[in-house]
């Protein structure tokens, strides 16, 4: 039953590989379907992303945040939502699962998809240049390589999710012809055990899917329907995947976008690198008629993904509120 879980399953993605046979693929799709219908979360193994690259990205995350504040502020976040966000500058006021009043106890460096200068959409909302630290050139090269491999993983997952919903494997493809990508390099310092204070307050994610790599500190928790917070500790060689709100709506509620939070009570610094794989800004998100059962109607009104996303960013980030 949806939301009735006590742990997060591990799903091998070996069956989504290009050389997998139809039986292997069917088994993987079934496991993915069950995980995303019940908990909305899964640990993904056999994902095909280089573990060496994952570790290099973690090291560059630590290196960036270890810098003096004046260095980090050289990359202060720009109007295209790319750059450095200091501690306590985001508050998840759009959370549908908690009344959030205190800013998150985290700092982060945000990258998004690269936008060619001559692209016809360059300069439109969220379509501008990334900011990379000049004094740490490996951050740029590692982040771009990481985003390339993670984008390929996101595309494979989209095919598996389509099949889990009874749709053709390539059903989502046209909606991701120019995907909206986020790579967020997060640092959570040790936090006091204070009521309503979080590294990341209880929330659901906005988008399609999130693919998270944690370090070994822990602190991520997922809420089941009994309002119990289930720990999601790191498991070596896996990503934590979760369904975002737009995928839950797209699936007419078949897949569940589950509340989660971060509390870093470890007395250590915590680093994580979530990657968000989302539709093109121009994609029209509408529940597919071919997925609906007889007599079933779509619960959501069609929406342009870019409009939907900007509304949430504008409400949750201090720098966007001040600019409006």
Summarize the entry for a quick read.
Keywords: Dioxygenase, Iron, Metal-binding, Oxidoreductase. The protein is an alpha+beta fold. The protein is 27% helix and 20% strand.
What features would you describe in this structure?
The chain has an eight-stranded mixed beta sheet with strand order 1-2-10-7-12-5-4-3. Strand 1, helix 1 (22-38) and strand 2 form a beta-alpha-beta unit. The model has no long low-confidence stretch (mean pLDDT 91). It is of the alpha+beta class and 324 residues long. Helix 1 (22-38) packs across helix 4. It is built from seven helices and 14 strands. Helix content is 27%, strand content 20%. The chain is globular. Residues 179-279 form the Fe2OG dioxygenase domain. It comes from Sulfitobacter porphyrae.
Q: Structural class, from helix and strand content?
A: alpha+beta
Give the mean pLDDT. Answer: 91
The CATH architecture classification is Sandwich
Number of domain units: 1
What is the percentage of strand-forming residues? 15-25%
Rg computed from alpha carbons, rounded to a whole number of angstroms: 19 Å
- Provide the spatial order of strands within the biggest beta sheet: 1-2-10-7-12-5-4-3
H-E order: EHEHHEEHEEEEEEHEEEEHH
Distance between the termini: 43 Å
- Number-wise, the strands total 14
Low-confidence stretches: none
Into which percent range does the helicity of residues fall?
A: 25-40%
Structure annotation, total helices:
7
Shape: globular
Report the CATH topology name. Jelly Rolls
Oligomer: single chain
The CATH class assignment is Mainly Beta
- Name of the CATH homologous superfamily: B-lactam Antibiotic, Isopenicillin N Synthase, Chain
Main sheet characteristics: 8 strands, mixed
